[in-house]
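User: Write out your own:

AI:
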Amino acid sequence: MSKLTHIDEHNRPTMVDVGDKAVTRRTARAQTRVRLPAAVRDAVDGDEIVGRKGPVFATAIIAGVMAAKRTHELIPFCHPLGLEKCTIDIRLEGGDAVIECTCRVEHKTGVEMEALTGASVAALTIYDMCKALSHDIVIAETRLVEKTGGKSDFRASEEGVAGE
C-alpha cells in the first residue's frame, strides 16, 4: 500500500527529508485550461488581449513565472528551489486559453508543484485582467502533463488520465 509522503509515522504533517536523495535533472510540465466566454474571446486580437490593465497573456506569463519561483512560500512542505528554467506558453484552442508551464532544476526533489503553481497563477491573472469583460470565465482544469527525473517519470494520457 502506498504511503503519503508528507505524513510521519505518528500521522503528523511533515516535510520530506531529501538529504539522502541524488541530485538529478528534474523537469515538469503542467497545464491549466481557461474557458473564455464570448465577451472575452471578442477582445482577442491575434494572440493577445490588450485591456485597460495592459497585455493580458504577457502579464499572465510574468505572473506565472514569479509564482513558480515562490511556490515554497505558498505550499507549506515544498522545498525552496532555485529554478534553472521556467517557461509559460499560452495558446488559444477554440474558446479556451491553454496555459502550459514547464520548469527545470538540478536538485534532490522535483518541480511538479512549481509547474502547477505557475500554470495556476497565470490562469488567475487572466481571470483578474478580463473580469471587467465577463465574470463567466472558468478556470476549468489544472493537471500535471509530464515529469522526468527522480524516482519515476510520468506522462499523462491524451484524455488527461494518468498513462503508463
Observations:
- Residues 112-130 form the longest helix (19 residues).
- The chain has a mean pLDDT of 90.
